Amino acid sequence: MPIRLMVFDVDGVLTDGEAQALDLALLRQLAEMNRRARKDATLPAATICSGRPAPYVEVMLQAIDGHLPAVFENGAGLYVPENYRFLPHPSLNSHAPMIDVQRKLSETLVQRGYAYFQPGKEYSLSLFATDPDETPHLQEEAVVALGDLCAEVDFTYSPSCLNILPRGMHKWKGIEFLASYSGYHAAEMLGVGDSDVDVPFLLNVGYSAAPANANDAVKQIVQYVAPRRSSEGVRDILSHFGISYPAGPGAAAAP
């Protein structure tokens, strides 16, 4: 089945991570691919599946001129640019458990200066260690802090933080939501990710790849591992799967 939709994680894939410069040339190339895909449905479009909050994902989708829905907060929500809607995943019936989780972690780990939250999230949490060397210990600290509330959440690491998600939520659920809303099938998708949080969706899309900076768990499950990091790796991945992309303004049309 041909690739009709490319689904990219952001941090560690399209970018080198939080607070790092954007590869504007790659974003322009993906934007041109999206413009062409709107005119010719046989060409693959591009969208995003990220742990970032909705406003960040909206901006990144604008940067690639995306017209298809994008997944935010690791599957907890879907941004639909067509009518500017931000939809929570249908399985999220209540915010109450995550409100309690955030309050408990704030009272313990955050207020004592051990960790801080990534701002802007509504349905999940990303916890960063104030001392990056403490990142591997965030989960054990969070488990102690939360006690019985651990039954309400799942923990998944990204390279720089601990993601705390409503129990049962993950990126594959977000991709299923995207597929049902857009009509694109998972078998027609190329997924690109780099960390544990990406594994559920990479296991279930038709095509999968990772840049060279991906962790071992991801490298073991994807169909292709690029020899280069992050955005340069994305260029290798597109070439590997035979996806032509414009070199810049005025480039010849993709075959």
Biggest sheet statistics: 5 strands, parallel
**Fraction in helix:** 25-40%
Compute the number of strand runs.
12
Specify the number of helices. Answer: 8
Which structural class do you get from the secondary structure elements?
Answer: alpha/beta
Numbering strands along the chain, what is their spatial order in the largest sheet?
2-1-10-11-12
Explain this structure:
Strands 2-1-10-11-12 form a five-stranded parallel beta sheet. It has a four-stranded antiparallel beta sheet with strand order 6-7-9-8, covered by helices on one side. A three-stranded antiparallel beta sheet has the order 3-4-5, sandwiched between helices. The model is unreliable at 250-255 (pLDDT under 50). The protein contains eight helices and twelve strands. The protein has helices spanning 24-39, 54-63, 96-110, 138-146, 171-182, 199-202, 216-219, 230-240; strands at residues 5-8, 45-48, 70-72, 77-80, 85-88, 115-117, 125-129, 153-158, 161-166, 189-192, 207-210, 224-225. Strand 10 (189-192), helix 6 and strand 11 form a beta-alpha-beta unit. The protein is α/β, with parallel strands linked by helices and 255 residues long. It has two domains: 5-90 and 169-240, Rossmann fold (3-Layer(aba) Sandwich); 96-166, Hypothetical Protein Ta0175, Chain: A, domain 2, CATH 3.90.1070. The longest helix is centred in the first third of the chain and has 16 residues, at 24-39.
